Amino acid sequence: MEPRLSLVTLGVSDLDRAIEFYRDGLGLPLETRDPDSDVAFFTLGATKLSLYPRELLAEDAMVSPDGEGFSGITLAHNVRSAQAVDAQLEEAVEAGATLVKPGQEVFWGGYSGYFADPDGHLWEVAWNPFFDID
Length: 134
Known about the structure:
By secondary structure, the protein is of the alpha/beta class.
């Protein structure tokens, strides 16, 4: 397999609400879409974030849509400072996210916190002094 992640798809319970959260709340750039489409794409550099109804995503993967609790996956957004972690967490909460873990110093030498989007998908916001994001 080539070393590349092309697309992250989140199964969502309400596509319009999810689009509003990511586009209007977090300010991610929504690609042009047909309003009758069941999918929405956001460009995140070389990777895309896709939102798709949870039931349809489960059907496509041939699995049950009844996931509960921690799914074993988190998404991460690295920022340039510890202060930026707190600011990004606050922005997400103002947009409708739930604060899961406030920003704090972590064992690996950085600073991070977590929020959950309206569908419960976990996002880590982190400042890592050992990770270049430029």
